[in-house]
Design a protein that fits this description.
A hairpin with a 4-residue loop joins strand 5 and strand 6. Helix 1 runs antiparallel to helix 3. The chain has five helices and seven strands. It has a seven-stranded antiparallel beta sheet. The longest helix has 13 residues. By secondary structure, it is of the alpha+beta class.
Length: about 170
C-alpha cells in the first residue's frame, strides 16, 4: 500500500482531486481505496489521460485485480457521536435504481443503532444507481462478520493547496 500512496503523492494532481485514503483489510490482503474528487467528470478526465495512466499504472495495478474502481456519490452521512475512529466496515446493497438506493439510505439512516462502537455511517449511491454502499466508522472493532478495514495512510489537500497549481502536498 505504501507504493500506491507514494505514487499518488508524487503525481501532479489537478485541483479537482481532494483526497485519498487507503484502508487495510483485516485479512491482510484487501485494500479499500477511498478517493474524493470534486465530481465524476474530473476523475474520468484524470483517469483517461495517457500520461497519468503511464505514471500510476504500476503502482495501482494491484487495486484493479477485482475490477475497475466503482464511482459513488456521497448521498448522506450520519454522525452518531464524537469519538476517534479506529475501524471501518462496509456493506453493499443491490438496488433497482438511484431513487431506490437513496430511499434505502434514508431508511437505514433513520434506524436506531444498537452497536455501541458505531460512530458514523456514510451512504454512497453508485453512479449507475444500482447499488448503495455503506461505510460505517467504529471506535473499536465490532463483533460482526462484515469486512473490517483499519486506517493505513491518507493524503488530503488543504484548502489553500487546492487552489495552488503544481504537485500535491504531503500529509
Amino acid at each position: 500500500m505504501s507504493g500506491v500512496m507514494d505514487a499518488w503523492e508524487d503525481t501532479r494532481l489537478p485541483d479537482a482531486y481532494l483526497s485519498r485514503h487507503c484502508l487495510e483489510g483485516s485479512d491482510g490482503r484487501t485494500i479499500l481505496n477511498y478517493a474524493q474528487w470534486t465530481g465524476p467528470e474530473a476523475h474520468r478526465s484524470f483517469a483517461t489521460d495517457p500520461h497519468n495512466q503511464r505514471t500510476l499504472r504500476s503502482a495501482v495495478q494491484a487495486l484493479y485485480t477485482a475490477g475497475p474502481p466503482g464511482r459513488y456519490t456521497l448521498h448522506r452521512s450520519v454522525s452518531l457521536r464524537a469519538a476517534p475512529v479506529r475501524c471501518f466496515t462496509t456493506t453493499s446493497y443491490d438496488t433497482e435504481d438511484a431513487a431506490a438506493a437513496r430511499a434505502l439510505a434514508e431508511k437505514l439512516a433513520a434506524r436506531t443503532s444498537t452497536a455501541p462502537e458505531l460512530v458514523a455511517e456514510h451512504f454512497h449511491v453508485a453512479e449507475d444507481g444500482r447499488s448503495l454502499y455503506v461505510l460505517a466508522a467504529h471506535e473499536a472493532e465490532p463483533e460482526i462478520s462484515a469486512p473490517r478495514f483499519c486506517p493505513y495512510r491518507g493524503w488530503a489537500r488543504t484548502p489553500a493547496a487546492r487552489s495552488a497549481s503544481g504537485p500535491g502536498m504531503r500529509p
